[in-house]
User: Fold these one by one.
Assistant:
Number 1:
Amino acid sequence: MSSNRPVAIALVGLFLVAAWYSTWFEITATGTYSEGLEREPTIRTEYIIDNSQETFELSIENSTPLLLYWLQREDVSPEPTNQEPTDSEPTSQTNSEGSDPCSGSCLGQARGWVGVVLVALFASLCLSTRRPSRLVTAAVAAIWLIGSVVILAVVPLSAAADFGISDDGEESSTGGFDTNTQETVEVDQFAHFEAESSLEISFDGISFYYQSLGFDLGLLSEDDRQQVINSAPSEDEPGYESLIGFDGKMTIGPGGILTWWLLTAPLAAMILLGSREFLEEE
Amino acid sequence: MEKTDTNSLSAGCMSNRILSTTICLLILTSLAPTAAAVGPSDSVIWGTSYDWANLEGDIEELSGIDTNAVNEDLEEAADFAGFIIESDQVISGMTQFFIETYDGDLAVEITDPNGATRELNERVTELTVRHGRLGNIGFTTAWTDEDESIDFWMSGSTEEIFVIDAVYTEYVDDDLMVYGGHLEMSGEFALENELQFNLQIIAADEVLAPELGMGFSVSFEIPSIESEWLASEPLDYLHHLSAPPAEENNGSEEDEEGAVGAEYDGEGVGLIEGEFSTLTGYSAFLSIDGVPSEDFGIDLDAFNVQLSDSIPGQGTFSENMTVFSGAMWGHECDPVGGVEELDIDPSTNDTISAQCGLAPPISMGMASMMGISMLMAFDSGVNELFTAIEEQVGAWLEEIAPEEESFICDNGEEIPAEWENDGEIDCEDGSDENETGGDGTYTCDNGQVIPASWVNDGEEDCEDGSDEDGSSEDVFQKYIDMYEALNNSNLRKTMEAFGEKLEQLMEDNDPSDPIATLDDLCPIMFWDTSNSRVLGMALMATDEGDDYEVLLGPDILGVKDHSYELSVVYLTGNDARNAKLDALGLSELKDLAPESRHDVEELYDMLGEDFLPDLDQTDTDEDGVIDYFDQDDDGDGIFDWEDSEPLVPNQQSPPGEEEGTDAIPGPSVLAVVSMLGAAALLMPRRED
């Protein structure tokens, strides 16, 4: 087995280089306006992180009705209250600082971490062939696990942190769309809003499915809004034209880096096994 | 679908040979494209044809400017100055149009708006337009000093197609009074432009390497428009236009040079009704890469945005018909004027008399019907698009419009914000100059006095730094340093040397001294007074002796032809008839401007792989020229576009079309090496 180790080490090196140059993290999303707009406009987005840059792609098919919708709708969100923040309430400035601990360079730091674990794994495997010991074996296993955490969690979280997304308990933009309480219309822009979502885990990553249907009050004149809020119009009634349906799918997953990283595991195991045999022989 | 229908119908036609043959012929006739017809052999037909591949040669012939020599001069001047410039452009494609007019064989019965039935004659005009063009342009430059360098790469492309087939039937009586018309037309207009820039500047130990790509396309297809117009009363515009030169009549007016204009103003001359189907499309993309977005607070390094839509439209319309027309006879276009003898059909050598002047090449009834019909069809699909664009642009303009910031003085007076602390007292109470002295000075916290203009200029001028509040510690300092580094390099001297050398080299390519004087270009239409129709047209230009000669047009007896080697061809008679027949079969860009005739090999050599990133490198005939650039794939000496049986290269994805990217991630070479490595590991070794 020991004669195979140089080949295995070379392959691990190759896989790690491939991992470094492949896609690290990928979000793809597709959303179709299934109700309310002509020709079902579809939005496709792709967000990719690799070793040097973040790439964002957006395409809108059958874009004219969607552009018209966005342009013609009126913002009906309630006016923000002009309440002075008290000493006990942290200001938004404080909040944003708190949610961005690395001053917008979290991803840069994460890239550094990925580089470090890739180099560390290769170095520790090399070391295990030269100076096999249980300590080195444990170090290889620890580095591999840390690397997995960095790839699966640190990279996406750092990207999210750079974007200013944080788990600070703020209400999401769709959080209040609920017809049961009949209060949603006071804080949100849709009436009789219904949404369903589901989650699926596959080799591609985690897929979220989302469907929503509701009457966009921003498309209605001020006089008609209350009528739609009071009762959902049926197909032939005025106000029905504000019904907007949206079907979306978003897949979040690590890119090619995970495949290459996982491929290093059996090779690392093979190298470490060879080292163990060597230790036992000694 | 059409094929299936035809087959099934043909099978059914077998039982009764005569009847079936007749029915089959009728069906086949109905399957022919609408609005694409060929007139009788005695029709009046004329048109022009131009091959865009000859544009550079024609420009040189007329202006004396050799565009290739200009490119070479640019390169030589740059070489002299110590840097590199390369540029090239390729244009190919074809433009043809034909106008054919003839009298219909059959009389037609028309019920006029008053309910009276009239037996009228048909005058048919067919308009055929084919235009397809491909264009590419490339430009690269590379300059380097000891520590600084600039590399610039640019590639642009354009694709155009314009196809019109229109058949107009005008209803006239024996006195050429017009009672209405019928129009059938189809067409397509499409335009696509793309531009890509790559720039790399290295200066002051900084690198700036943005890549920018943008493009848009618009298309408007008219599968069919059919409309009919019935005049509310007989119209005499054909007579009106036929008025002989210098004869005064209603609406005629003599100008200073003795030309007589005949105008016809017919508003609300009946109703035009019709139906249409259209398909309007557009797309636009913008991609940016390598922009230092983090300097501007954006967390994305590269982004690509694309919008597209395809809007089907169909409907009917009913509008008031308007016919405006006019002609001008007797205008000076020496030696042509008055009545001339023309050789209207080179195949017969017959000559014909024609009145010379300016007149609409097609019946204005046809022009009006086409205009109104297309406007109605265009409005249905594109109105939605234009509304969206207009509103979007309006919203953007509103967003980017600078807000007029103001400063409120202590006494309530309002002044522009930039007047605050500008060294001049603008508020009556002087409260706008509370930090700086009224004499244009600023007092630092430590008591030091400095000019007010030094405050927040990016440099600490007060010893305690109190003149800089940090707001000017901007991200642009890096770029200012780069600019200064370039300014201190030999770039300026290089550009001066380049300009001087280029001026010297361009002396023999001076565009201010053209061979042909196109300023004196003079168009003429030839009018058949007996039938009130245009027989053809000519473009006259002056030669070196300032004498007019026919630049484009039929042979005019007694008038010399031009002496230039031009590729634009004027066609009449059978030549035009045959060319039109060929043109009717060409309706797509790949036919009108085939890529096989668009030779971009030199551009590829110049711009490299970024120009055609996924170019298929297959060389089917193994002659060292890959199929994409090989104009004679089978090596039989006949260009592929003229070869009835060209060798079909391997069917592979055309350049630019990526194959599926769902494969296992990673470079394929790497995958192969990995597999070999894995095999080496897993193979049982001899000693085992």
Number 2:
Amino acid sequence: MPLDSTLAAAPAADVPPSQLPNPPGLLELFVAFAKMSLAGFGGVLVWARRGIVDQHRWMTAEEFNETFALCHFLPGPNIVNLSVVFGSRFRGIAGGFAAFAGLIGPPMMIATVLAALYARYGEIDALRRILAGISCAAVGLLIAVVLKMMMPLVRKRDAVGLIILLAVFIAIGLLRLPLPAVLLAVVPLSLGITFFLRRRVDA
Amino acid sequence: MNSDANPIATLVWTFGLMSLFAVGGANSAIPEMHRVAVDVQHWMTDKQFADIFAISQLSPGPNVLIVTLIGYSVAGVAGALVATVAMCGPTAVLAYYVSRLLARSRHSRWPAIIQAALVPVSIGLMGASGLILALTSDRSSVAGLIYARGRGAGLCHAPQSALDVAGRRRLGFCWPYLTKIASKASGPAPKLSNQCRQEALGERDL
């Protein structure tokens, strides 16, 4: 839980902040992430990059990519991880909270209102048809992203990667096995194979 | 909700655990959310799940807010809050500690290996998300048409990075597609059933 008071006792992050004359304050972090989050329909990453790198110049593009790569290989919502890592880099744990609260708080209120409206009016036929249309488009885009991310593996003829990809797809998508069980089997396997192959290449 | 335990506790447990297994982000966890919410806990129907996914795409903010909507439908405002915090909390704490750890050992090769090992896993999960969402949404020819459009569009632009594109594409390209698709589908397309056509028209009313 993020509101765990025992965490506050830990020392501030010893990650060196970027060379900035005045790193962002807590309120500034909150407002900046709230803005990015509210601007991002269907995904916040683009706006986060724009806000952090272009607008506020809190990070160079390279630092941003590095931070994002870290947040991408960690489990969980990437952009949430990014907000916590980013905020804590400048202002310790309090900064992490401020950025996280800005990212999640305002859109969560909007989502709650939408959920309440849906609970009340969800049975209206026109609304259901609109939602069906949106969901079709969103699914199409998701599939497009998946295909695009797959292309590098295909091009590299990464057979191991493709087999693992297919195995996960079948286990989760077709067999509907529980996610934790599948990952506990596949992730160590994938890690082991990757490690072994890299060592052989290096040797 | 017909779980015998306290629904709030079930939400915390479900999403707290899912948080640590969502390799590749919130979209990777959609099959698991569907499995738990529809098949195991019977919190909602297939159709409601598809609607909730659509609402989460429609509202601003990170995609993870789909858990807010699921939480609300289970236990009201408290459920929404609890589900969101449970989904974000554990991984946020993990991210904090890992980023500090890596800052100390900057030149370790482990991050690269872990990333290389997890990329196929997360693509497989997202593919499964696409499949399950496609099955829960209407299995109509409009859906097929729209997937094809999305797919065609996905392959003809050359991106710098797939991650970057994931966000940008959804953001910038979604609405033009919707209108294009709507105009296409509402034209004299003989294959469309009446209901599908109405769906397409419904989109245009946006």
